[in-house]
Amino acid sequence: MRKVCLIAQKDLKLIIRDPIALIVYLLAPFLLTLGMAAISGGFSSGDSGLSNIPLVITNTDRSDLGNALVEVFQSEELDELIAPMLADNFDKARQLVDDDEAVAALLIPEGFSSSMLYREGALAANDVVQLELYFDGDHTYLVQVIRTIIETFISQLESSQSSIAVVLTKLVNDGLIGYEEIPEITEGLTSWDESAAESQIGYRLVVNDTEVDSNNVSYLALIAPSLALMFLMYNVTGGGVSFLIERRKFTLQRNLVSPTHGYQIILGKALGIFLRGFAQVLILVLTSALLFGLNWGNWLGVIILIAIATYGALGWGMLLTSFFKTPSQVSSAGTAIGLLFGMLGGGFLPTTRLPDWLNTLARISPNLWGSEGFTILAGGGSLADLGVILLALFIMGTLLLVIASALFRHNVIQDRG
Amino acid sequence: MPPILQAMNLVKKFGDFTAVDDVSFEIMEGEIFSLLGPNGAGKTTTISMLSTLLEPTSGDALINGYSITKEDLQVLNSIGIVPQEVALYDELTALENLNYWGKLYNLRGRKLSQRVKEVLEQIGLTDRAKDRIKTYSGGMKRRINIAAGLLHQPKLLFMDEPTAGIDPQSRRMILNMVKEMNQQGMSILYTTHYMEEAQELSDRVGIIDHGKLISIGTQDELTQQVGENDSIRIETDPTDDLATIAASLEDIDDVSKVIIEANGVTLLGRNAGQILAPIVNRATQAGARIRSIEVIEPNLETVFLQLTGRALRD
Ligand SMILES: Nc1ncnc2c1ncn2[C@@H]1O[C@H](COP(=O)(O)OP(=O)(O)O)[C@@H](O)[C@H]1O
Ligand SMILES: [Mg+2]
Q1: Between β-strands A131-135 and A203-207, what pairing exists: parallel, antiparallel or unpaired?
Q2: Which residues pair with B99 in a beta bridge?
Q3: Is the pLDDT of residue A233 over 90?
Q4: Closest CA to B287 of B234, B232, B227
Q5: Deepest of A51, A134, A416, B256, by most Cβ within 10 A of its Cβ?
Q6: Kind and range of the H or E element at A205?
């Protein structure tokens, strides 16, 4: 085991040492996430650049949260991305959208701040004050970006006690509430039922005056798991290539003529490939969660599912590597299988559009099992709900690795040609 | 002394092609044994079998008493290997490489750092140890390549053309190192296609060509096989018709063989001193524009010429 770790550790060190590999390694998942966001915008419009998205804001709230939201859009971090304008009434703002001067208009209505804070308090009886986002259908992707920012803002308010504390402190400092009111307010806050809160807060989307259900958003959420898994397949077959590169550079042979068992070398390299595949998908999942507020569900479940899916994919990667002689052969085969499995696993099309026999065939890919797992988790499932999926992926990985190891001894290790 | 290595009828076939053909030899403990032969002779294939990297098609070998086909781990613990190709991780430093290879040979902790330090001193690269291999010159890479094979102080070291294509200083350093290690008791199997290296280093030499071990013995034993023969090398103008010149020389008494080379011919024969005059006459008549003539005492090169009819280099 010591040598297995030694070999894996060496492989990871080699990745870290190679600046190009490292950039690709860290950046690829990030870019892929952005790509996914672009895809989820539906390719419907000709929008190309992701900068200076014109947004017109009408802030009639003029209180803390409303101002804070405006500040978010005006902040330096979003300087490049968003070009906010202010309009003092919402009709004017809407007109700007209709005239194509802005892609969307955001109304922060009067009473927004207090509505957010005193949900169960004095204002409970009143209608919940909602943000309103008005846009026409041409710029869905850009609007998606704006929505993501708003959703992130709201979800931070909802979930983070500390941000509530900040708001409360500010309210106190501004003399809007007294200290003595705080316990009452926080009690109200903590007693929210989360789902109730979700249904009450949030905001209204108005597309050309037709309302859209704000919870039925995310193509990103639909497509991200499949793409993440497809990415994993590429990545893992790419890792297999390092085996053949080591052979070409004769370091594999040198490993083999040390007093180390062949299986230790195979396991060591497999572990290295596993870790890098795992890390990359994790980066992707985290980026999409942080950047686009994508909800992957139960984190423990997500991490274990990534690990086991990586294991299944690793089996395929090693099998490919053991079949072929040159790095480029493995790469092209890896690309082909990655695409095929990606398609079968729903990376491009919903799998419901595929014929039944293809859906059955798709069971040999880690992608389909994996995306099903992610769907379960995103839908609120827990680790226990993944039982069959984890088992299937585990068996797949183990079976393929055993076959690959046998082929390895024969193809990669014995034959120097 | 008992043999540290005993190769018995080793054969390696790649498909129909026989790369190593029934090779048998022994290396005694404390000996430097060279396999001398041109490119493609089967030296690397032989070493690959002895180091268990390739399975012999038939035959076996005992190293330190262990069979290469049945007890590979014991064999691998007994030998060190300096592969023909520099086999190091370019992106790691020399120190990291040596630590990695040392650990693969089960060295740890104090012992490991001690040995790494020693071999770095031995190859004279202590001050470059923290640089990545990719910043090294060819000669320096070769030295690290050697060092990596020495860390675990093997009883028997395989060196596969360790001086191929490097600068004279690095080469000199490596040859001296080989002798030094041998003096400290290490047995060495050295392969080369340079006659001079085999001559300088070896206690015994095996001459290998087309996969066959065609002769084996000490240098004296080998040169005696050539008998009284000297070799006479005639360098001519590159545009001369060497075939005609060679034909004109073949029927001189005492000339036993004429070999055409790149820029001249080499003759094997007896009484070189007496036949020089007729050789020059005939060659000139045949149109040779002679640039130089050299009489060479019997050496490994002559032996190779005699046995194969070809020159070692090229
Ligand atoms: N894996 C292989 N497949 C086919 N032929 C090989 C293989 N390895 C070596 N050979 C052939 O075997 C012969 C001996 O090669 P090698 O042992 O490398 O020679 P040397 O080391 O003496 O230069 C060469 O003709 C070479 O082309
Ligand atoms: Mg060779």
Answers
A1: parallel
A2: none
A3: no
A4: B234
A5: A134
A6: strand A203-207
Whether B102 contacts B158, CB under 8 Å: no
pTM reported for the whole predicted model: 0.70
Predicted confidence (pLDDT) per residue in A31-79, tens digit? 777 776 666 553 333 333 456 788 999 988 888 788 888 888 888 777 7
Nearest to B199 by CA among B310, B312, B34: B34
Q: Find the ligand nearest to B83 CA.
A: 2
Q: Are A150 and A203 in contact (CB under 8 A)?
A: yes
Distance from CA of B79 to the nearest CA of A (A): 9
**What DSSP string runs through chain B?**
--EEEEEEEEEEEETTEEEEEEEEEEEETT-EEEEE--TTSSHHHHHHHHTTSS--SEEEEEETTEETTT-HHHHHHHEEEE-SS--S-TTSBHHHHHHHHHHHTT--HHHHHHHHHHHHHHTT-GGGTTSBGGGS-HHHHHHHHHHHHHTT--SEEEEESTTTT--HHHHHHHHHHHHHHHHTT-EEEEEES-HHHHHHH-SEEEEEETTEEEEEE-HHHHHHHTTT-EEEEEEE-TTS-HHHHHHHHHTSTTEEEEEEETTEEEEEES-HHHHHHHHHHHHHHTT--EEEEEEE-S-HHHHHHHHHSS-S--
Confidence (pLDDT) at B197: 94
Give the model's pLDDT for residue A276.
Answer: 87
A contact test, residue of B50, B104, B107 with most A CBs within 10 A:
B104
The ipTM estimated for the assembled molecules is: 0.85
CB environment A316-328: b (16+ within 10 A), e (fewer): bbbbbbbbbeebe
**Domains with residue ranges and CATH for chain B:** 5-223 (3.40.50.300), 229-297 (3.30.70.100)
pLDDT at residue A412 in the model:
58
Mean per-residue pLDDT of chain A: 75
Pocket flag, ligand 1, residue B14 (CB < 6 Å) = yes
Exposed/middle/buried for residue A163 (C-beta within 10 Å: 0-12, 13-18, 19+): middle
Contact between A167 and A140 (Cβ < 8 Å) = no
Domains present along chain A, CATH in parentheses: 2-40+219-413 (no CATH), 45-212 (3.40.1710)
Ligand 1: residue whose CA is nearest its atom 11 = B19
